[in-house]
């Protein structure tokens, strides 16, 4: 265990220690180290007051300065039960632990049931490098059947500087929160009346989506993909064949009955032909059925079939969040069906495609992290496919990541049951990682659906199937873009690219002429002709983070030009309209 993790976990003990000093009747839950800090769950005798966290934090700092040793002791369960007789959650843990003995750790006047490890002495902690941040409700052991406890969260780092840097980053992240900006910029909202986890896209948000989708389609056509489309629901038998009905139950919704109208059902009439359909959690089985409509020859391969398909996956209500945890989302999906001798080439093309796409959105592709998920060799029975198939696929994925000089980590046991995969994580401006692209082998579906092609010897052979998505999902990717750009999208993605502001009513005619010109060139505009002061209109445009603002008065009318303000750069002066058009058309083309 890394030292900082020991520090974080030890701080959770000190937190519980301080809490008990103030509120001796508190019942203690658990207190692990987590990413960037720690938490501890408590059942308080009375709810915490606003300044309690501050008080507890101050006391923790005092405890740290007392240079208390952490001392380990192994005791019998019988003794432990006596020791924690007033702590029902500790008793619960003791009865669950295997063996006859448990370990306890004592620092100062505080003893906790714990398996460790800890730091040796509280003096190893810099008292200014941690901070209690918030409280939240948390069920004991994460189960809704148990009591809701109060969780106190803390941040902790090796040094106060790291803590400050992280806190600043979080503050910045809060300002960039896509849920906040989504509302401010009028991009989307989640409507309880419609359903949680089902975002509604407003005109400006839908425009961003459209720009991304257009770009995606164009590039897929250039890369020799063909487009397919499939419905949102499919017959239960399809999902039984694919194995989703069985392996994927936890992520799917219960069936819909299709054999009758709602009206008949309401009248209590039994359906004559009851058919069960399922909302699709994936697009693959549909694409397989397209493949299977006729015998395929080795000459037809590879097939690259792409679809932006909306899938539905079960998420608990409490875990839904903005665009990143939703119940319905649109994957930029594609399936590549190919021969053994084509696999390497196809995978390389996908990797190049992924890097090209991210570069086009202005991401630093040298900072992409790749995870190679492999089979757990000790638990082979958890996976479909043959040893030979797995070795081939894992070796080739590794070879390609090395050849493409990608920074990658191998993760044994992280593969899907149907095959190994590469996952790509992008870093945003704040250094946060976002899982986007994925590239996965599938030994399962070709087998289950008996997909074949006729090889050059006239014999039937099984093709390889590769699933891949570049953005992952539109919803997630747009959330990433919103936070990465803090809502100030590059010109080519901006839902509104240019705002037009006439100074007074007598310039309306000229403004109309300019608008016609912009529209002719497919520039997306907002006409600010409401009866407001110029200052107010300019501020509104700036709040909306529109890249360009054109102001026109007497001088501009006379010289057939516009006064240009650029987002983030300010006044660019008076420019001839043709010149302005040329500049922004070039910038849009260059994806600026
Ligand atoms: Zn501990
Ligand atoms: Zn798929």
Q: Rg, please? A: 30 Å
Described by its quaternary structure, the protein is: single chain
Number of strands: 28
The CATH superfamily label of the largest domain reads Bira Bifunctional Protein, Domain 2
CATH architecture of the largest domain: 2-Layer Sandwich
Give the overall shape, derived from the CA principal axes.
Answer: globular
Main CATH class of the largest domain = Alpha Beta
Question: Any idea how many domains?
Answer: 3
What compounds are bound to the protein?
Answer: zinc ion
Lateral arrangement of strands in the main beta sheet: 11-15-16-23-20-19-17-18
How confident overall, as mean pLDDT?
Answer: 94
Proportion of residues in extended strands: 25-35%
Alpha carbon gap, first and last residue: 45 Å
Please explain how this structure is put together.
The structure is a single chain. The protein has 592 residues and is an alpha+beta fold. Helix content is 36%, strand content 26%. The chain contains 19 helices and 28 strands. The strands form 7 sheets. The protein has an 8-stranded mixed beta sheet with strand order 11-15-16-23-20-19-17-18. Strands 1, 2, 3, 7 and 8 form a 5-stranded antiparallel beta sheet that branches. A 5-stranded mixed beta sheet has the order 25-24-26-27-28, sandwiched between helices. Strand 2 (33-34) and strand 3 (37-43) form a beta hairpin. The longest helix has 20 residues, at 3-22. One zinc ion binds at residues 9, 13, 105, 112, 114, 116, 118.
């Amino acid at each position: 265990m890394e030292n900082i993790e020991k520090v974080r976990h030890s701080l959770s003990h000190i937190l519980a220690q301080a809490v008990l000093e103030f509120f001796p009747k508190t019942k203690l839950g658990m207190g692990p180290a987590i990413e960037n800090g720690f938490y501890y769950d408590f059942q308080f005798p009375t709810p915490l007051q606003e300044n309690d966290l501050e008080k507890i934090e101050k006391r923790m700092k005092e405890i740290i300065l007392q240079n208390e040793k952490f001392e380990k002791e192994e005791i019998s369960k019988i003794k432990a039960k006596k020791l924690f007789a007033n702590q029902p959650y500790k008793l619960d843990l003791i009865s669950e632990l295997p063996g006859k003995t448990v370990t306890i750790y004592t620092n100062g006047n505080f003893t906790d049931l714990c398996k460790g490890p800890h730091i040796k002495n509280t003096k190893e902690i810099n008292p200014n490098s941690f901070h209690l941040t918030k409280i939240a409700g948390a069920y004991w052991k994460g189960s809704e059947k148990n009591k809701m406890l109060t969780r106190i969260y803390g941040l902790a780092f090796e040094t106060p500087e790291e803590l400050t840097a992280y806190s600043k980053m979080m503050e910045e992240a809060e300002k960039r929160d896509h849920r906040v900006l989504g509302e401010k910029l009028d991009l989307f909202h989640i409507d309880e009346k419609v359903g949680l986890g089902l975002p509604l896209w407003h005109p400006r948000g839908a425009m961003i989506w459209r720009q991304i989708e257009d770009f995606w389609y164009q590039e897929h056509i250039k890369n020799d993909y063909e487009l397919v489309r499939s419905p949102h629901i499919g017959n239960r038998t399809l999902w039984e064949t694919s194995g989703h009905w069985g392996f994927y139950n936890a992520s799917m919704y219960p069936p819909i009955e299709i054999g009758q109208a709602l009206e008949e059902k309401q009248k209590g009439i039994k359906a004559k032909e009851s058919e069960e359909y399922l909302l699709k959690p994936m697009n693959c089985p549909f694409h397989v059925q397209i493949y299977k409509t006729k015998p395929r020859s080795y000459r037809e391969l590879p097939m690259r079939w792409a679809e932006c398909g909306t899938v539905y996956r079960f998420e608990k209500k409490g875990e839904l969040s903005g665009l990143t945890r939703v119940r319905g989302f649109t994957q930029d999906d594609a399936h590549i069906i190919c021969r053994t001798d084509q696999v390497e080439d196809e995978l390389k093309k996908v990797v190049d495609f992924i890097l090209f796409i991210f570069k086009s959105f202005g991401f630093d592709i040298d900072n992409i992290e790749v995870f190679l998920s492999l089979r757990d060799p000790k638990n082979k029975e958890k996976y479909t496919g043959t040893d030979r198939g797995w070795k081939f696929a894992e070796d080739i994925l590794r070879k390609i990541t090395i050849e493409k000089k990608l920074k990658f980590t191998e993760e044994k046991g992280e593969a899907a049951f149907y095959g190994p995969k590469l996952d790509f994580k992008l870093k945003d401006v704040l250094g946060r990682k976002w899982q986007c692209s994925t590239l996965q082998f599938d030994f399962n579906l070709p087998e289950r659906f008996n997909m074949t092609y006729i090889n050059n010897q006239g014999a039937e052979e099984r093709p390889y199937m590769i699933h891949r998505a570049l953005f992952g999902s539109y919803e997630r990717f747009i959330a990433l873009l919103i936070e990465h750009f803090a809502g100030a999208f590059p010109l080519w993605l901006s839902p509104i690219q240019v705002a037009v502001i006439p100074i007074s009513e007598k310039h309306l005619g000229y403004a109309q002429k300019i608008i016609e010109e912009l529209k002719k060139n497919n520039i997306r505009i907002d006409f600010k002709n409401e009866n407001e002061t110029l200052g107010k209109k300019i501020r509104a445009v700036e709040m909306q983070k529109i890249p360009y603002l054109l102001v026109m008065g007497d001088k501009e009318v006379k010289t057939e030009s516009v006064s240009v303000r650029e987002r983030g750069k300010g006044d660019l002066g008076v420019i001839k309209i043709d010149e302005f058009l040329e500049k922004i058309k070039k910038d849009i083309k260059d994806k600026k």
